[in-house]
Design goal:
The chain is of the alpha+beta class. It folds into two domains: 88 residues, no CATH class; 75 residues. The protein is built from four helices and six strands, in the order βαβββαββαα. A hairpin with a 2-residue loop joins β5 and β6.
């Protein structure tokens, strides 16, 4: 029997709970994550004793001392960080913990992601427009494919931002209902 395995674990910031729940389910069945690569897109697991471990993803531009102290004082351990994304883990017995204790903290995290995505888009769209005009005048198939791939990536960021905006609107609506 293999003691290690890699899984393709794609996730989006608008639905990080799917990835978090997968990690928790794997740990409960005895497959503990040990390593991630490519922005958590691939996760390596090692066979160990089953454990109840909660995993939560958060986004901050940087991890300052106050943030780190807040998390570690609450019993969270940093499993991995990458480009502003932080994957925290915490063992538990009965009550399933979460780093987002209310809807407003989740809205705040989504807003941080939106600012980041907005910054990238505001810098990439003008660059794309300048170079796309030049590249479309070329007859090179490779350059045209790269131009469309670049446009596809920009489109994905726009879709991601839109999904997060709708998620925030839903969360804010839920806050008003209470």
């Amino acid at each position: 029997m293999k003691n290690h395995k890699w899984l393709f674990t794609p996730w989006f910031s608008s639905n990080s709970q799917h990835y978090e729940n997968l990690l928790e389910k794997m740990a409960f069945s005895g497959w503990i994550p040990t390593k991630t690569i490519l922005g958590f897109m691939f996760t390596k697991f090692a066979k160990q004793d089953p454990a109840k471990i909660r995993y939560c993803i958060d986004f901050h531009y940087k991890r300052d001392a106050d943030y780190n102290t807040l998390m570690t004082d609450d019993g969270w351990h940093l499993f991995k960080s990458r480009n502003g994304w932080f994957l925290w883990e915490k063992s538990y017995e009965t009550t399933r913990p979460s780093i987002f204790t209310d809807k407003q903290s989740l809205i705040d995290m989504n807003n941080r992601v939106l600012i980041f995505v907005g910054f990238i888009l505001t810098t990439q769209i003008p660059i794309y427009l300048i170079y796309a005009k030049k590249l479309f005048n070329q007859t090179s198939l490779v350059l045209n494919i790269l131009t469309f791939a670049y446009l596809f990536c920009i489109s994905l960021m726009i879709i991601l931002g839109t999904i997060i905006l709708f998620e925030n609107a839903k969360l804010k609506k839920d806050l008003i209902k209470k």
